[in-house]
Recover the amino acids of this structure.
């Protein structure tokens, strides 16, 4: 049984809304839990970055509803192998992120964990009723847009995993991370795209549907198509992929295609959204936003069209987490 | 370095308020994380009870602010040794609690854990500005009140731990839990005291300070005294202790005093609050509320007076958790 089916079965009758945030009036809330060994590997995750990232992810979910983050609660459970200094680092990173995005840390608790570290962040935001954006509003012929570039966080993870394996084989080995700064930062210190939310507001554009890209473009597209009861067509040559991402892929294996990282690599935390065609003129001039395809009718599949005009049906097949 | 000092050091500059909930206007929010092996032992915690309890604890923190619970987000991280049926049980218990207390489960996520189960509940409530109750409002001569009875949840834990040890020594042993129903239910399925919150509202009583009793009466009294800059005097003979709690203590050891369970045993989730003396007539007729002492001046210690008129200084010395 897949994860989506499992969650649907278990939460049946609980009234869960299954979007990026729960919506209570004009308040949007989401809780993110990061578990050591599953969501992060302590071997290559500086605690300062972890503190930053834990909050950044929760803010990204606020952004995905077209909201602005306001408060957060941060709870950590740690085993006693963590020193106070290590935890200081975690909170320092958290503080940098909360300062940058104007989020007030209003509560949380610290407790004991028997095995590793568990971080839980609850982010609370606000959104004007008329700007609230769900996954379910996409309509036939809407343009599909995404921010930033895709697959780079996964490329960063690939580099870190490679260096880890090398180090484990030979502890005298010095990891060489030169030239990978962009993809590493994308993985270790993602930025929620509040700048895009601001641009959309400044231009008076309200997306018809939106989500963030946390488990690959394919997964996010399928979420929007399922919620909006529609299909989609995106163009491979339109997908924004950074040069460094392509280089990492080619270093790893000739079978590792950059487009696969974009479709199935996780943790980009870019925004995926749809707009009505009449917003085309506004969108096309916005820096950092790419129009990658359009929404098709109900009953149509979600597909990617290659430069050779081949049509590939998209499946949610996010690259597996650390231990899956 | 103690836990309180640690949290104070780490959250310095984050603007945490250190009360039972974070307060945002008339909204109160808290997040509770339960970690397997630390906060619960899977050997004697039915998952249905765990689902109930996880939400009940978060609601209790809403009650402690004099608020009413409205919504909750529930996230669980589980390793794959949990079956779908087991998780069904968890959500069934959760649903019973959310129905009973009128809480809508509006979101959450299910993720993978490498080791054991981690449950995170964020509860959101509302409170009228003029009824909001912090820990810091107690004043000299205020009466100290508590609801229900104390130490019984800890007595339940003692019984379960005893049966576990016996079972581990001899797996053919059938745990005998007859006659312990009250203390077991107190531990496994605590009830947030929303009924007390309602009584206080119906009688137009606003406590000057309030918190819930999650780590023993002594700990909660000290929280109020520290936050309110005052001392307190409570009377041993006034502490409400159930007959079954006393019986369990006497079975365990002649050194295990019921009053120690009340002062230092955790997880009662009763309410501890202070009221002005002029509310005495209203309070004394309320079922389930006990007046146990009064607030003394700043600079005075927090003490318990025994029937022999001996004064014992209270210390936060909650009985240790499962692995501490």
């Amino acid at each position: 049984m897949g994860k989506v089916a499992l969650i649907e079965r278990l939460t049946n009758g609980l009234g869960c809304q299954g979007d990026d945030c729960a919506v209570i009036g004009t308040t949007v809330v989401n809780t993110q839990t990061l578990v050591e060994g599953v969501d992060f590997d302590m071997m290559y995750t500086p605690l300062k970055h972890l503190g930053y990232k834990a909050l950044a992810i929760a803010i990204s979910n606020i952004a995905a509803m077209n909201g602005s983050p306001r408060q957060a609660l941060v709870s950590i459970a740690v085993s006693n192998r963590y020193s106070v200094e290590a935890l200081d680092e975690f909170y320092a990173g958290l503080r940098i992120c909360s300062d940058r995005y104007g989020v007030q840390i209003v509560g949380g608790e610290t407790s004991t964990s028997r095995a590793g570290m568990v971080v839980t962040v609850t982010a609370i935001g606000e959104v004007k009723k008329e700007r609230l954006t769900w996954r379910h509003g996409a309509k036939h012929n809407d343009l599909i847009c995404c921010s930033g570039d895709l697959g780079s966080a996964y490329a960063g993870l690939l580099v870190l995993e490679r260096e880890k394996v090398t180090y484990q084989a030979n502890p005298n080995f010095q990891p060489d991370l030169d030239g990978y700064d962009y993809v590493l930062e994308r993985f270790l210190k993602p930025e929620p795209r509040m700048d895009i939310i601001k641009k959309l507001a400044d231009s008076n554009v309200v997306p018809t549907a939106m989500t963030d890209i946390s488990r690959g473009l394919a997964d996010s597209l399928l979420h929007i198509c399922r919620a909006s009861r529609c299909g989609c067509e995106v163009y491979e040559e339109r997908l924004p992929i950074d040069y460094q991402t392509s280089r990492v892929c080619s270093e790893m294996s000739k079978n590792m295609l950059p487009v696969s990282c974009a479709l199935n690599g996780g943790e980009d935390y870019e925004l995926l959204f749809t707009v009505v065609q009449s917003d085309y003129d506004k969108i096309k001039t916005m820096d950092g936003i790419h129009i990658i395809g359009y929404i098709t009718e109900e009953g149509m599949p979600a597909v990617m069209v290659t430069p050779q005009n081949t049509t590939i049906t998209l499946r949610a097949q996010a690259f597996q987490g650390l231990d899956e």
Remarks:
- The longest strand of chain B covers residues 68-78.
- Chain B is about 35% helix and 25% strand.
- Residues 320-324 of chain B have pLDDT under 50 and may be disordered.
